[in-house]
């Protein structure tokens, strides 16, 4: 294996934005696309589809750079993060900040091609993305703040299509807030021992022995709110099939995390995007066959 110092800048930048770990942006793409389909009452058109897929990937990548800059002194004490480009010294803070800025500007440029309401909502989305890493110092449930940042894609999608954010949008937003709380608590369970040593705040630490119960309640609330708000769209059997597959995966997640092993919790987190994919497939097919 080549020494870290010999890696190309491109390789380091791709590592910085977690390019080889698509699960991180897939968990954002599926709920955003569900919102886009629902707001459009079906296929939203190629322009909006491309804007929101690319925008989501780019903003998630920018968020990774911001997170690593903020956590660089903590990451060296966590087994899973000691070799990240900034923490290991292979990429400077200034260099990483420029990568994040460029990605954010490109994403903002994509939003500019839609309605002004979507542009307006993208401003707080960027602010919450920047602020999230710092909430882990003082907020008992930083995953909730992460959910706010992650779910702006739903709000922006409705704003881009309809020029307003209605009750359906906010219900989907809340449903996916619980989804973020569920899968990111699973993620936090992986690092709990290290986070306790360095004084980091996470939902896994706050929930304590009720962590598994909390994750399952979060998943159930997400499922129930999604099913409730979309039932009125009469999407038929494809939608309920997708929801059924999502429910089966939630049960599978319980089997993975119930013993609280690092391996099981990490597998649960890394596969959580399939829940959103199942719901999205049900929504797409439901609108197609309606």
Description:
The chain has 290 residues and is mainly α. It has 15 helices and no strands. Helix 2 runs antiparallel to helix 3. It is globular, with a radius of gyration of 19 Å.
Note the gap between the termini.
54 Å
Under CATH, the homologous superfamily reads UbiA prenyltransferase
Q: Per CATH, which architecture?
A: Orthogonal Bundle
The largest sheet is: none
- Strands, total number: 0
The geometry reads as globular
Strand content: under 5%
Radius of gyration: 19 Å
Helix amount = over 70%
The number of distinct helices, counting runs of at least 4 residues, comes to 15
| Mean of all residue-level pLDDT scores | 88
Question: So what's the oligomer here?
Answer: single chain
The low-pLDDT segments are 1-5
CATH C-level class is Mainly Alpha
SSE order, one letter for each helix or strand: HHHHHHHHHHHHHHH
Supply the number of structural domains: 1
What's the CATH topology label?
Tetracycline Repressor, domain 2
Secondary-structure topology with pairs:
Blueprint: H1 9-16, H2 23-40, H3 46-70, H4 72-75, H5 93-111, H6 116-135, H7 142-150, H8 152-162, H9 167-190, H10 192-198, H11 203-207, H12 211-230, H13 236-257, H14 262-270, H15 273-289
Helix pairs in contact: 2-3, 2-8, 2-9, 2-15, 3-5, 3-6, 6-7, 6-8, 7-9, 8-9, 9-12, 9-14, 12-13, 13-14, 13-15
Main location: membrane
Catalytic activity: all-trans-octaprenyl diphosphate + 4-hydroxybenzoate = 4-hydroxy-3-(all-trans-octaprenyl)benzoate + diphosphate
GO molecular function, one term: 4-hydroxybenzoate polyprenyltransferase activity
């Amino acid at each position: 294996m080549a020494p870290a110092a010999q890696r190309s800048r491109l390789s380091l930048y791709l590592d910085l934005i977690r390019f080889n770990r698509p699960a991180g942006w897939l968990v954002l793409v599926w709920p955003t696309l569900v919102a886009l389909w629902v707001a459009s009452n079906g296929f939203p058109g190629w322009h909006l589809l491309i804007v929101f897929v690319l925008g989501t990937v780019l903003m998630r990548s920018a968020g990774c750079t911001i997170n690593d800059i903020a956590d660089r002194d903590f990451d060296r004490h966590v087994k899973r993060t000691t070799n990240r480009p900034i923490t290991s010294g292979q990429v400077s803070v200034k260099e990483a900040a420029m990568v994040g800025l460029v990605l954010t500007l490109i994403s903002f440029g994509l939003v500019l091609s839609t309605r002004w309401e979507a542009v307006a909502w993208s401003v707080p989305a960027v602010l919450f993305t920047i602020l999230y890493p710092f909430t882990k110092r003082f907020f008992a449930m930083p995953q909730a703040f992460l959910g706010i940042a992650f779910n702006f894609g739903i709000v922006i999608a409705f704003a881009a299509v309809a020029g307003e954010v209605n009750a359906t949008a906010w219900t989907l937003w809340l449903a996916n807030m619980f989804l973020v709380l569920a899968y990111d608590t699973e993620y936090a369970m992986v690092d709990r021992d290290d986070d306790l040593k360095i004084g980091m705040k996470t939902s896994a630490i706050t929930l304590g022995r009720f962590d598994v119960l909390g994750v399952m309640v979060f998943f159930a609330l997400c499922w129930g709110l999604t099913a409730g708000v979309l039932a009125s769209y009469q999407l038929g059997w494809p939608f309920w099939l997708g929801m059924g597959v999502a429910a089966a995966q939630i049960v599978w997640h319980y089997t993975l995390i119930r013993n609280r092993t690092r391996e099981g919790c990490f597998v649960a987190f890394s596969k959580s995007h399939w829940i959103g994919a199942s719901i999205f497939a049900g929504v797409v097919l439901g609108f197609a066959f309606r």
